[in-house]
Amino acid sequence: MTGGTTAARERAAQPQAPRPQQARRWSTGRGELWVAGGVLALAGALASGTATMEVPDGVAAPGPQFFPWLVVGLLAVVGVALGAQVLLQARRAHADGGAPATMSNDLLEDLGAIDGTSELRIVSPADAAPAPGEDPEDDGARLDVRTIALTVAALAGFALALTWLGWILSAAALFWALARLFGSGRPLLDVGVAVIVASVIQLAFGAGLGLPLPAGILEGVVPWTS
Amino acid sequence: MDQLTHLLEGFSVALTPSNLLFLVIGAVLGTAVGVLPGLGSAMAVALLLPVTFSLDPTGAFIMFASIYFGGLFGDSTAGILLNTPGNSSAIATTFEGHRMAKDGRAAKALGTSAIGAFLGGTIACVLVVFFSPAIVRLATVMGPAEYFALTVFAFVAIAAVVADSIVRGLVSLGLGFAVGMVGIDAMSGAERFTGGTPVLFDGISIIVVTVGLLAIGEVLHVAGRIRTAGGNGPFLSPKGSPLLNRREWRQALPAFLRGTAFGVPFGAIPVGGSEVPTFLAYGTEKRLARRRGDADFGTRGAIQGVAAPEAAGNATAGSAMGALLALGLPTSATAAMMIAAFQQYGMQPGPLLFERSGDLVWPLLASLFLGLGILLIINLPFAALWARLLVIPRHYLYAGIAVVAMLGVYAISSRVLDLWMALAIGVVGVIMRHFSLPIAPVLIAAILGPMAETQLRRALAVSEGDPTALVASPFTIVLYLLLAATVAVSVVQHLRHARAERATKARVPA
């Protein structure tokens, strides 16, 4: 490692939340009102679904509508509370949940007697610090929406193509497209890797464990696909 | 000592070649997903669920359990060598572990963490075996009201602990309930939120939900930042012996035991897995080091700071297995996936499981011990080899995750519709991550929600609608009091931190 990268890492190592990787903080901003709105919309949809539910005759006292009403109530209350929270403290930054089971940072800091100097400096994700002078409100824009949209499109394309093209071709295409989207610079090598990955899965799960993977247009061409 | 004979019989089943094979596969897979950042044992189990339909349940569960433990073995490797913990359960280990590595004691840190994981897990499993009859006896006196109280406790505890604000935790919980309600109501036969389409009569498969939220959500989340993110830091290669000498054992052993003591009780209560006890163990070691005047802690790296959190992490997995088998209560995302696995095989974990499926439970418990031994063997000398997994280019890693996720979803019932649902849920997952809404409560609520509803309706049906029946027994009263205390602590803490944050902001204009 050169001196330059070390210095960059040192700079990046400013006190922040003890998260594995991706510990960038998002300023949730007013965009989160959409989330609150979505929660309320879900509550509304569930409420109408519950109200119009066809309940079979002679069902015992707390029927099938009882629990849904509780959930509708919960969603309505937390939706309003979330909206109020966003409006009252719009600039409050939240640690971005990189790990699936995110925990409250505050709680962990208390439990671990973490004082924000020694520990937090040592666990420093590579991309922690926003560049100086960057507007913290601007965080949302840094999410690369284009790549996300293209990834979704690739996955959707896979779902469309699977039964027609068969597993090997469509899975290889998905693998290749995602590797490319995620910054691979060697598309030809990727073709080879993609075909190998798709074929190994076909062999292991299709031929080995007997999972019915569609053969598609390769039906009959390669004997071990079916 | 009835359980010892059962356990010995269990060993004889677990030691058959096919079960040993599953054990080793699980240990290798678990360690691998533990080492790789962004993958976890919950996702691994969810992806394997549809594939294991055709397997014998005993073998499948042996594999799942060793994936669970393997994940906790592997997660500290990347943390120690690269300063990027493979999972949130290894953050506490990373603090002192990476310091030791920078000090040239990487092998020692890896050895300490493997031994700690082994000791913590083994002690917890011994306790589970000894106390399982008592837990089962306790569980048999529990009625619907008690079970409902237990599930409410699980919901509120996870919502309060997992998120930065309780509101966010509750939002996630509500989403999970909504997902869990879709389908035909088992008690009355009424159609709920299916929109009249028969494909939704069976509800939304929990595998679709998990793979969508965890795997596809993670892939999309990474897609949103992979072009701007930097690479890994310098890779410290471990040299020397991973084994501890006598003096180091004297330092580490008490820390191993203290860590285990934190881990065991926390594994049995639903507070979102191993983060809380690992941080508690780390904090305790830090305070003790300060009192001792230990200059290594926080500078060169102290062996206790690795030993205690690592033992705590695996101890939670041991008692989580106990809580899962004896009470049917999932205390972590991986345990929740195992409940889904039991349901797939038509079994309901809980006190009756020991009676009805003793031929599954005891081999499973025996295999936990075997699995821990195998994991120690494949981790203690070869930790540096596992770390080589981190060399896989990230674009291949995430492309591979996406392909395997699609495979897992399609394998559920060979329906393309499931792929679309998983994709939609993945988009929801990435939005949730963006707004720091926690994922774990969604899974817990989607799995435990229907169970809670059934118990609540049964309790109310028995009492003829009288809600006081829910708090009539001492057990329920104690649980609700504990719950109130948890919420109070959490609220106080959030308020205190909000105030501290405001104070910092006022001092340093950001």
TrEMBL record, chain A:
Signal peptide: none
Protein name: DUF1468 domain-containing protein
Pfam families associated with the record: TctB
Organismal lineage: Bacteria, Bacillati, Actinomycetota, Actinomycetes, Micrococcales
Transmembrane segments: 33-51, 66-88, 152-179, 191-211
Record keyword Membrane present: yes
Superkingdom of the source species: Bacteria
Coiled coil: none
Alphabetized UniProt keyword annotations: Membrane, Transmembrane, Transmembrane helix
Region (Disordered) residue spans: 1-27
Comp. bias regions, Low complexity: 1-25
Residue ranges occupied by any DUF1468 domain in the UniProt entry: 34-214
TrEMBL record, chain B:
Pfam families linked to this entry: TctA (PF01970)
Residues of the DUF112 domain: 20-443
Presence of the UniProt keyword Cytoplasm in the record: no
Phosphoprotein among keywords: no
Keywords: Membrane, Transmembrane, Transmembrane helix
Superkingdom per UniProt: Bacteria
Stretches that traverse the bilayer: 20-49, 61-82, 109-135, 147-163, 170-187, 199-220, 323-342, 362-384, 396-413, 419-448, 469-492
PANTHER family named among the record's database cross-references: TRICARBOXYLIC TRANSPORT PROTEIN
Name of this chain's protein: DUF112 domain-containing protein
